[in-house]
């Protein structure tokens, strides 16, 4: 448990301080949803705190899931979710929600194709 | 790596790695993950239940639940995550989020503490999440007959039960492959059944 650690930022002591106390995100984001910095985010032309800059840098290279952002920033998942949702609403980040395996109603072919891709990827490992 | 250009098809998937405390979940994740397993934490408070008020910012009476996870890049626009469940099964609040949209689960079992996974199996069966049972052989010894383990766990004969060595990349890979094959076969059976 990292809460209460002596991190110089102090942001972990009161975990929701960086969200100004908000615990409810503007957007529900799955743990494994992939986050990517947009061109606007990369331009650096926005007003944001330290956390926003860290996230923009983190997701400017390879895609990162919400869980990775939270883990690498050492903030609770809920905090990362509020921050990412705000930044997505401001056009700084793009959030790619998982497709899901049963979301395709009908014959389930989208989910099946995705599973087959996962399977062949695992076999190639 | 991923080019920022065409990411319209970018998506992710996850597999849940469950089992009792100390059974080797993080070891299993680490054996096949392309990153050193990371830990993410969730905080359960009354405030996360929908209260949104600066005056109620939680700093007391919170429960922190940690989950370890790893990552496998399947191809440029598909990333698979392996999420270990929190060690303590009493933190069920996190499990709903973990299983939502998951491909399925691997229940990692230590035959010396079989009972540790009863509640986990109940949970997956209740939530209709496909799972398989992987018996972790800590010292490479396969001491038990898999059918005995199946009987002890009282699981259906359809559910795959197999040995694994959570430390071994190839062994973990085979378990993951088996799970995805199982899920695919279930889907095909279901489709045939419907038409």
UniProtKB/TrEMBL annotation, chain A:
Taxonomic source organism: Glycomyces niveus
One Pfam short name: DUF742
Domain of life the protein comes from: Bacteria
This protein's name: DUF742 domain-containing protein
TrEMBL record, chain B:
Family: Belongs to the GPN-loop GTPase family.
Matching CDD domains: Ras_like_GTPase
Keyword RNA-binding: no
Record has Transferase as a keyword: no
The protein's name: ATP/GTP-binding protein
Keyword tags: GTP-binding, Hydrolase, Nucleotide-binding
Source species, domain of life: Bacteria
